[in-house]
Write a structure and sequence with these properties.
The chain is of the alpha/beta class and 298 residues long. It has helices at 16-27, 46-53, 69-75, 96-106, 128-133, 160-166, 179-188, 211-229, 232-245, 250-261, 263-269, 275-290; strands spanning 6-12, 34-39, 58-60, 82-85, 90-92, 110-119, 124-125, 147-148, 156-159, 192-203. Helix 2 links the parallel strand 2 and strand 3. Helix 8 packs parallel to helix 10 (250-261). The protein is globular, with a radius of gyration of 18 Å.
C-alpha cells in the first residue's frame, strides 16, 4: 500500500521522547511516506536522536527556533503533490494519508483536508471535532465534507503548490493560531477547505509545553489576523468580543499590548478579504464565542 503522493512534515523543539514516538508510528504506516523534520534549535539532543534512530528521515537543522516557519522550510524540500502536517506529539492513522490524497485527487477545488483528532491514551475525540463536523460554513454541494473557515496544522493534508503560492505560514505569527491567516488567503485564492470524518490523526499531548506563552501568542495572532484581513466594523466587533471573553490577567494584557505595538506593520500589510470569504468568517463568529475548544482563550 505504499503511497508516494504525500510527504509528512513535522516541526519540533525539545520534545525528543515525543518526537521519537511519533516517528516510530509514522514509520509503521502502510503508505511509507517520506518524512521531513525541522528541529527548531532543540537543546535536548533531539536532532542527534532522530539521526541515530530514524536515519531515513530528512532532518533540517536551521539553528534557531523558527516556530511555524519551520514547516515552510520543510515544504521547500517536498517533491510530492501533497504535504501532511502533524506535530511532534501526534501521528496519522494507517490509511488516512491515502484517504486524504484520494480525496484531493477527486476534488481539484479542495486545497486542504482536516482529519478527526483522537486524544490518547484514552482514544476519545478532541472537543474541536464536533465543531469541525458541525461547521456552519456553507459550501458547494460537490464538497466531500463540511466546509471550514480554517484548518488545524497538526491534522491537515494540503496541496503543496497552493501552500507555497499562498506564502505558507507568516513568520511574524510564529506559533499559536497561525493557520487562520493562511486559511483565508487560500480561500481568497479560490480554494475550499474541508473536514473529513473518515480520516484520523492521534494526539498524545506533550507535557513539555508553555501554555501561558501559547495563549499569549494565540490572542495576539487572532488580533493581528483580524486587523490584517477583516473589514473595519467586523474587526472592531471581534476585537471587543475578544477583550470581553479572554481571562483578565497579565497574559491577556501582554497579548493586547504586543498586538497594538505592531499597528504600523498592520497598516502597511492590511488587505481586506473579498465579501464571499468575509461572509464565511461572520458565520463562524457565534461558534467561536461558544467554543470550549479554543484553548488560547481559557
Amino acid at each position: 500500500m505504499t503511497d508516494p503522493r504525500t510527504t509528512v512534515v513535522v516541526i519540533t523543539h525539545n520534545r525528543r521522547r515525543e518526537l521519537l514516538r511519533t516517528l516510530d508510528r509514522l514509520a509503521e504506516l502502510p503508505e511509507r511516506p517520506e518524512v521531513i523534520v525541522t528541529d527548531n534549535a532543540s537543546t535536548d539532543g533531539t536532532a542527534d536522536a532522530v539521526a541515530r534512530h530514524h536515519p531515513e528521515v530528512r532532518l533540517l537543522r536551521p539553528g534557531r527556533n523558527l516556530g511555524a516557519v519551520g514547516r515552510n522550510l520543510a515544504v521547500r524540500e517536498v517533491t510530492t503533490p501533497y504535504v501532511a502536517f502533524c506535530d511532534d506529539d501526534s501521528w496519522w492513522a494507517p490509511g488516512s494519508l491515502t484517504g486524504a490524497a484520494d480525496l484531493l485527487d477527486r476534488h481539484p477545488g479542495v486545497v486542504s483536508v482536516t482529519a478527526r483528532i483522537v486524544v490518547e491514551p484514552h482514544g476519545t475525540e478532541d472537543p474541536i471535532v464536533r465543531e469541525l463536523r458541525e461547521s456552519p460554513v456553507p459550501g458547494p454541494p460537490w464538497l466531500p465534507g463540511p466546509a471550514l473557515g480554517s484548518f488545524l496544522a497538526a491534522a491537515t493534508v494540503l496541496r503543496t503548490d497552493a501552500f507555497r503560492k499562498a506564502g505558507g505560514f507568516h513568520p511574524k505569527l510564529w506559533l499559536g493560531g497561525e493557520e487562520e491567516l493562511l486559511a483565508v488567503d487560500l480561500a481568497t485564492d479560490g480554494w475550499w477547505l474541508v473536514y473529513a470524518d473518515d480520516l484520523t490523526i492521534h494526539h498524545h499531548a506533550s507535557e513539555a509545553r508553555d501554555a501561558t506563552l501559547r495563549r499569549r501568542h494565540g490572542i495576539r495572532n487572532t488580533l493581528w489576523f483580524t486587523w490584517l484581513r477583516r473589514p473595519v466594523v467586523p474587526a472592531l466587533r471581534r476585537t471587543l468580543d475578544l477583550a470581553r471573553t479572554v481571562p483578565r490577567d497579565t497574559t491577556s494584557l501582554l497579548a493586547f499590548t504586543e498586538a497594538a505595538a505592531a499597528l504600523p506593520w498592520i497598516l502597511r500589510e492590511r488587505r481586506v478579504l473579498p465579501p464571499e470569504v468575509e461572509t464565511r468568517l461572520r458565520l463562524l463568529e457565534p461558534t467561536q464565542r461558544a467554543s470550549k475548544a479554543r484553548r488560547y482563550t481559557g
